[in-house]
Amino acid sequence: MTASPLQLTRRTALVGAAGLTLAGCADGVGGSSGSDSPSAPQDAQPTANGNSEAVITVSSAHGLDAMWPNEPLDISVENGTISSVKVTDASGAEIPGKVAGSQWTPDRGTLLPRATYSAEVTAQDSKKREQVSTAAISTVNPNLVIEVDFRYADGTVIGNGMPIWVRFDMPVNDDQRAAIEKTASVVTSPVQEGSFGWVDGTTLYWRPKEYWQAGSTAHVEVKAGGLPAGDTWILADSQADYVYGDLRVMYTDIDNHALTCYQNGAVVNTIPVSCGKPGMETMTGTKVIMDKQSPVVMDSETFGVNNESPEGYKLNVYFAQRITWSGEYFHAAPWADYAHGYQNVSHGCTGMSDANAQWLFNFTLIGDPAEFVGSTFPVQAYQTIGCWTYSWEDWQLQSAL
């Protein structure tokens, strides 16, 4: 396990007060009783390291060799005042920040863990002579950090029900989510209204108010590197691009045993289907196509039903498209051709003939929305890519902001 901030405090207590003190030379300009002795001007111009009396000390609460990403630099100046602070990363890029009193903090509020920086502090003494000093900084190197990635953002064209999917590889605490979400932004083309929402500790979605418009693109950035998350920190900033295709919607009427396929608002096919029988009903509501496989092994023992029992099975199923984590699919079901269009006989999936299943498999994209009506069992958000199980008003309440 990663050491918690409290554990790290104990571990770094011996270096907590560590700092770097840098001073200019003592003032070597001696006084003279001679009437022709020069005197220092009242408004002397600054001179770099010109016999400045300023003494600069740079420190941080956990030491400059194990600085926490979310703590400021403490800067004290004896015999002078701070003129400027410049912090750069290992590549030489400057970290925007500000000085308030005797502390420097980056504008975004954090540095990154497992990183090195250089701080250049300029101070002036009472005669406006400058002292410039530098300090090397290393941030804490925890055993574990949280990394951020984006599912379904590999450049492949995806379906218009797929949200922007920000994934954290370890859980984020409830009280940390707002700060992280504040760093996240989405730019869409064309412009579409949307909102972030958390569905669990590792998943942050952004969905538009309605399904993505045909041909949409989206750029997402999460500049949360260095923010605390769980018992550690987020390793780095992340960004991704999403590309969406035509708007395809699969609309299944469970009671009437029909799947109507729409593309950009027009009906392109209606397929006779058979859904879940009594006691194993197909869930109603909006699901999303999450995966496509042909074949896939379906095994009743994965949900506790023995293969040899009357309701048991283990078989290869073709043209299968997963729409819930719990095992609902669109798929070919040639053993039930007698029921397609007439009767619900499945264990919860939406079955159809081989030819229709193949057509549907070729027609759809991962991320296409699949709407179901007619059942009394609504799908829950955790059972699918669940941002569409909420009304728009309720979805906005999933935001931590």
Automatic annotation (TrEMBL):
Region (Disordered): 30-51
Gene3D superfamilies (alphabetical): 2.60.40.3710, 2.60.40.3780, L,D-transpeptidase catalytic domain-like (2.40.440.10)
PROSITE patterns: LD_TPASE
Matches recorded under Pfam families: Big_10, YkuD
Keywords: Acyltransferase, Cell membrane, Cell shape, Cell wall biogenesis/degradation, Lipoprotein, Membrane, Palmitate, Peptidoglycan synthesis, Signal, Transferase
Domain of life of the source: Bacteria
Biased composition (Low complexity): 34-44
CDD domains to which the protein is assigned, alphabetical: YkuD_like (cd16913)
Residue ranges of domain L,D-TPase catalytic in the record: 248-373
Molecular function as annotated in GO: acyltransferase activity; peptidoglycan L,D-transpeptidase activity
A biological-process GO annotation: peptidoglycan-protein cross-linking
Location of the active site: 331 (proton donor/acceptor), 349 (nucleophile)
Pathway linked to the protein: Glycan biosynthesis; Cell wall biogenesis; peptidoglycan biosynthesis
GO cellular component term of the entry, any: extracellular region
PANTHER family: L,D-TRANSPEPTIDASE, L,D-TRANSPEPTIDASE YCIB-RELATED
Protein name stated in the entry: Ig-like domain-containing protein
Organism: Brooklawnia propionicigenes
